[in-house]
Amino acid sequence: MASIAVIGTGYVGLTTGACFAHIGHDVVCADIDEAKVASLQRGEITIVEKDLDWIVAEGIASGKLSFVLGAENASRNAEFHYLCVPTPQSEDGSADLSYLQGAAAEIADVMPNGSIVVNKSTVPVGSTQVVARVLGRPDVSVVSNPEFLREGTAVEDFLNPDRVVIGSGDQEAAIRVAALYSKVRAPIMVTDPVSAETIKYASNAFLASKLSFINSIATLCEAVGADVGDVVLGMGYDSRIGSEFLRPGPGWGGSCFPKDTIALARIAEDAGFDFSFLKEVLKVNEEQFDRTAQKVLDALGGDASGRRIGCWGLTFKAGTDDLRQSPAIEVLSRLASSGAEIRAYDPAVHSNIDELPHVEVVTDPYAAIDGADVLVVLTEWDEFRWLDFDKVAELMVGQSVVDGRNLLDPAVLRRRGFQYRGIGR
Ligand code: UDX
User: Fold this and answer.
1) How many helices (H) and strands (E) in the chain?
2) Predicted confidence band at 92 (pLDDT cuts at 50, 70, 90)?
3) Strand, coil or helix: what is 208?
4) Which is deepest, 98, 122, 364, 374, by most CB within 10 Å?
5) Angle between the 127-135 and 193-224 helix axes, to the nearest 10 degrees?
6) Is 192-425 a domain of CATH 1.25.10.10?
7) What is the pLDDT of residue 337?
8) Which pLDDT score, from 0 to 100, does residue 240 have?
9) Fold match between 3-191 and 192-425?
10) Which fold has domain 3-191?
């Protein structure tokens, strides 16, 4: 088994470190945040990730997983150095590599000879060269090993991936990194670093494109009177299309898709290719936020001033507490200027949020819709389906439901006298 340093303990770094320890490696995770390191050393997980708490506790108990302050303290005795630091979006849409370069600079002089540095964070094409330049260590190979982790299922996605991608110009380094995954049952493909980085961006951009496509099909369904649920079912029988990732919604968001799709369009532009298709995918997504907000305004007869909107769902998707680039925030931001009073409930959100100063966050779904003229569902938390809709009908002033996730049963709601508006149905 190998000794691995993981730099950065966000959902990618912590999952990567804990899962590598779970499959037998000796892992030291580093962060710059002293309080965070101390809480991790106590086994306290602040990230909502299924199974992460027990797999971290297992690693700490076995001595295979530990946490230190500062990257240099993790890398001093490690053979592999995983960079799992944020690569946020810059003002101009490109990825900000300052954290990546900072982490590389911190470990450059302390890594043992013959170490391998691995880019796990989503980084622009050509980043292995950027890191190699910062390291200035001819004895150290830099390898791309992009993460394909979905928030909420990151542990599952690490231990049971569809594939492991390794990008390296050094065959021996690629083999050494591939060996880290010997206990993981998945295809391992080795390619050059630029292709590996492109696989990551292209995969996310394709998935985002698939979502913008089905959201546009949902709009078409509304125009022609088709039911998008049946359209998706009929499409999905074609194995070349599949039924995964075809749920219409209020638009897509999260900490990855928006950033990565914009970054890919920018990477293309910098390389002299106008990726107009991808720009349209992004435009359609913005329009989906507009359409969903408009559905709520339509339900209020076009004038929301003085009316009350009850919202279920704030996070960017169910199963996580992450609000970053949440479609719910995009839609409610558009409604905030309409003059309506908005209350929102989300099982993973327990206080008001900065991006929505005019929205009152409540801790009970019925409080969110008490006296409301319209209910809008913006995140697909399963618990919303099992609430008491007789009680909802009694508490609401209006009878309108805008189901931004096609989560609820239109027939059940219409039988209770609600006017139901879905996405494409
Ligand atoms: C994504 C990629 O799936 C993952 O492979 C990559 O490593 C990181 O980015 P994540 O950001 O966690 O993962 O979210 P994902 O589950 O992909 O959902 C992204 C957005 O699309 C969410 O807002 C979600 O609600 C939306 N979505 C997803 C839909 O609207 N419909 C769907 O059918 C699926």
Assistant:
1) 16, 14
2) confident
3) helix
4) 374
5) 140
6) no
7) 86
8) 97
9) yes
10) Rossmann fold (3.40.50)
Give the pLDDT of residue 93: 83
Mean pLDDT score of the chain, rounded to an integer?
96
254, 322 Cβ separation under 8 angstroms:
yes
DSSP reduced 3-state for 157: helix
Report the residue among 150, 233, 255, 381 best suited for mutation to probe ligand 1: largest number of ligand atoms under 8 A from its CB.
150
Strands (E), 39-90: 65-69, 80-83
Structure tokens at 122: 């989503």
Distance 151 CA to ligand 1 centre (A): 8
Cα separations (Å) of 405 from 147, 299, 379, 412?
27, 16, 7, 16
What confidence category does residue 85 fall into, taking pLDDT thresholds of 50, 70 and 90?
A: very high
Ligand 1 centre to CA of 150 (Å) is: 7
pLDDT at 51 over 90: yes
Q: Model pTM?
A: 0.95
pLDDT tens by residue, 411-425:
999 999 999 999 999
Q: Ligand 1: distance of its center to the CA of 348 in Å?
A: 17
List the residue whose alpha carbon is closest to atom 7 of ligand 1.
Answer: 148
What is the reported pLDDT for 157? 97
pLDDT in tens, 22-50: 999 999 999 999 999 999 999 999 888 99
* Contact present, 216 and 249 (Cβ < 8 Å): no
Q: Which of 26, 1, 27 is nearest to 13 (CA)?
A: 27
Map out the domains of the chain as residue ranges: 3-191, 192-425
Count other C-beta atoms under 10 Å from residue 260's C-beta.
Answer: 25
Q: Residue 281 and residue 241: Cα distance in Å, rounded?
A: 18
Give the whole-number percent of the chain exceeding pLDDT 90: 94
Question: Is residue 140 scored above 90 in pLDDT?
Answer: yes
Q: How many Å apart are CA 254 and CA 174, to the nearest integer? A: 31
Residues with CB under 6 A from ligand 1: 147-151, 204, 207, 211, 245-247, 249, 252-254, 256-257, 316-317, 327
| Cα–Cα–Cα angle for 363, 365, 371, rounded to 5 degrees | 110
Residue 221 annotated in active site:
no
- Say how far apart CA 334 and CA 324 lie, in whole Å: 16
Burial of 350 (0-12, 13-18, 19+ CB in 10 A): exposed
Measure Cα distances from 224 to 169, 217, 220, 359 in Å: 52, 10, 6, 35
